[in-house]
Amino acid sequence: MALSLQVIYPITDETHFDYDYYLGTHMPMVGEHMGAHIASVLVTKGLASGPDAPPQSYAVATMTFADKSALDAALGASGPVVADIANFTNTQPQMLIGEVIA
């Protein structure tokens, strides 16, 4: 069964997010350390939370995996990636692991 990992970066009044660093340094680091286990990656920049509502998240990174063993291997290799988060944001990322159903 295919699984996904979503990393969500919420916006608050006290937080910041460096998109240039995230795209130019952090995401290549994801590829270097976790990429062998990832089936696909999609990064979405938050623009709005509704027709007339500001975004609630800076970005959402969605990674898909062929199965639980691939997800586990990627998470096992993610130490340097997790340690790098403080270099581009001070928000507390949220994670959602789920079964891909469509």
Short description:
With 102 residues, the protein is of the alpha+beta class. 30% of the residues lie in helices and 28% in strands.
Structural class call reads alpha+beta
Biggest β-sheet: count, sense, barrel? 4 strands, antiparallel
Helix content bin: 25-40%
Global outline: globular
Proportion of residues in extended strands: 25-35%
Strand order of the largest sheet: 2-3-1-4
Reading the helices and strands in chain order gives: EHEEHHE
* Structural Rg: 14 Å
Number of strands: 4
The number of helical runs is 3
Spans of at least 5 consecutive residues with low confidence: none
Cα distance spanning the termini:
12 Å
Mean pLDDT: 98
Describe the fold and architecture.
The protein has 102 residues and is an alpha+beta fold. The protein has helices at residues 19-34, 68-76, 79-84; strands at residues 3-10, 40-45, 57-65, 94-99. GO terms for molecular function: oxidoreductase activity.
Descriptive keywords:
single chain, 102 residues, alpha+beta, four-stranded antiparallel β-sheet, 30% helix, globular, EthD family reductase, EthD_dom, Dimeric_a/b-barrel, oxidoreductase activity
Helix/strand layout:
Elements: E1 3-10, H1 19-34, E2 40-45, E3 57-65, H2 68-76, H3 79-84, E4 94-99
Antiparallel strand pairs: 1-3, 1-4, 2-3
